[in-house]
Specification:
- This protein has about 240 residues and is mostly beta strands.
- The chain is built from no helices and 22 strands.
- The protein starts with a strand and ends with a strand.
- About 0% of the residues lie in helices and about 55% in strands.
Length: about 240
């Protein structure tokens, strides 16, 4: 028997700092909900909008896998490892914070906001050597199918992290149905709706809804609208 958790978009925590408008699926900073601390190894799912010319000043992280997925606009990144980069829609960025890093992120655009997902996954190894990577994905490879964007394996498609996790993105025409088979049946899958509407295993989902499911071997996913876009995050349920 499968287990599920549904997080409707309007139940997320909200932090509006003026220059930053963030929606938190899980407890983060000043938003604390004991019922929403994490989904297995998935610890943070922040849906961020950063104003023109603004950003996050230099701040530290350690022992966390931090994934950034830009949805709109360009985000400039600088870190203590000497990396200076710009990530934009179509890219995915990973930082293994490990023994400790500092970094900053800024929207250098003068005429447009940056929208991006900030995702934290609890690693399966502590105090690894810090690491940075980013790649540009071919978004055509996710039309009416799931494109792998992250895995545990450096040689696989997408970026890799220190955890038995797989992320996929897909963008679908209306009324397309696909199955997703879990890579590890001890894992669960957290789905986040980036655009449009979906049904997953008979659960109806709308824009920015989150849906976690575990104790299953596969999911049946149907797009209920045009240009429906989804992010699937398969992660270990036991830490």
């Amino acid at each position: 028997m499968s287990n599920t958790v549904l997080h409707k978009a309007n139940t997320r925590g909200i932090a509006n700092h003026g220059w930053l408008n963030s929606h938190h699926t899980f407890s983060f900073a000043n938003y604390h909900n004991p019922q929403r601390m994490h989904f297995g190894a998935l610890r943070v799912l922040n849906d961020d909008i950063v104003d023109e010319g603004m950003g996050f000043g230099t701040h530290p992280h350690d022992n966390m896998e931090i994934i950034s997925i830009p949805l709109e606009g360009d985000l400039e990144h600088k870190d203590s490892m000497g990396n200076i980069a710009v990530i934009k829609h179509g890219d995915i960025q990973i930082m293994s914070a490990g023994t400790g890093i500092t970094h900053s992120e800024y929207n250098r655009n003068k005429n447009g906001k940056v929208k991006f997902l900030q995702i934290w996954v609890i690693p399966n190894q502590r105090n690894v050597k810090p690491r940075y990577d980013q790649i540009t994905l071919n978004s055509a490879d996710r039309h009416n199918k799931l494109q792998q964007i992250l895995s545990p394996n450096a040689n696989d498609e997408g970026v890799w992290i220190h955890q038995n996790a797989w992320f996929h993105m897909g963008k679908f025409d209306k009324d397309v149905t696909i199955d997703y088979n879990l890579k590890d049946t001890k894992n669960g899958v957290y789905a986040f709706i980036l655009n449009g509407d979906f049904t997953i295993n008979n659960q109806e989902l709308n824009l920015r809804d989150g849906f976690g499911i575990w104790d299953v071997t596969s999911l049946t996913i149907t797009s209920e609208s045009e240009d429906a876009e989804i992010l699937l995050m398969e992660v270990p349920m036991i830490l």
